[in-house]
Amino acid sequence: MSQSLLERQDQDGVARLTLARPHAYNSLSLELMQALHAELDRIADDISIRCVVIRGAGKGFCAGHDLKQMLGEGEEAYYRCTFETCSKLMQRIVSLPVPVIAQVHGVATAAGCQLVASADLAVAAEDTRFATPGVNIGLFCSTPMVALSRAVQPKHAMELLLTGDLIDAERALAMGLINQAVPGDALEASVTVLAEKIASKSRKALQIGKQAFYRQREMSLADAYAYCSEVMVGNMLTDDAQEGIDAFINKRAPQWQHR
């Protein structure tokens, strides 16, 4: 992990990943996306981590792709590499075995908005602004559209994509893009409460549930029930499920083994 691009802090089962390009509103350079993907790969194998928080340093969460870098390169192969890297990063967030929370402040635009939409949960400061403004510069936000169209209703997604307009956190909350809009001075504490609540659970149960959530969503109703029934059978056979049920019956705190 490059300390100049990404910072990681672990505490109480929560890994906090800070995008560290504040001079560029944490825009997603190719190198930053690669660093973030590599760190998520490490977290996937780290049994001590049960929740991830992604946040940005400085005045904003993330302003999208680094357009200066992209324009400076100016080659099709570089553009292809950039968008493929971004797509793989967003899919890694979804496939990560533990939940990911976006801690959002300032701005979350274009691929930054995509990052919010890709996270499992999102908490934003009330003065945050969101947009997919690519249409304003002749570059439609097609890859952000993938995450956005899965996070909010189609007409809300199309409104953001077609107008390029900024929306506030209250509107983002109403759309379902974020889970909470809180005062700026309460953002850190609000995310910490949520992350620590999740981190207190069985990592095995979190992994099973997150994976099943995204898989069943693309299935028919009957197929989803058949699949999730099998998932619950497998979950029931895990050590943590047996421990959790016994702890509940005997009114004691469970001792997770994360298996």
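^ that was protein a. below is b, sequence first then the tokens
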Amino acid sequence: MAETNALPLVLLTEQFAKLPGIGMKSAQRLAYHVMRMSDKDAEAFANAVLNVHKNVHLCKECQNYTDRHLCPICDDDRRDHGVICVVESPQDITAIERTGEYKGVYHVLHGLISPINGVSPDDLKIKELLARINSGTADEVIMATNPTVEGDATAFYISKLLKPLGVKVTRLAFGLPIGGQLEYADEITLYKALENRSEI
């Protein structure tokens, strides 16, 4: 930002620029937008940020974000607590819930194993998952990590830990999207579609 801008505006822009996917131009637009807010709206915005940090924590069961002891999904007796879907992030839960089809519960890893990025199994919520399985309530664990090198490695690592515990471990099927055309699919997607083919 140019030196002609007020220092508080420069500092606010720098804070916005720290957010993922926000470059300096977008950060500057956001800072100016905040400047145009009424004092009441600016205070509400600031309070919302502080409120998240003070009152949101990890669910004691699934490691999703919640403001209660248990998140609403873990606290729902209508959910099938015998099926645990393991995901990388809380955003993945939102995506799966949009389908309206999954009736089990979740476990959030908060990342994927990635030695290149310095992320080891100890940095993830794997110990908490093993504790849940050892409590004897789960019949199946669905590995719903992304179909990337890190996602596959994480799914494989966790499945190796879970299989001796007598729980069924499955992996989401990956392949061609509905309405997709073969000629536009990349090699990995086509490979996964062939590998995960099912009988009709």
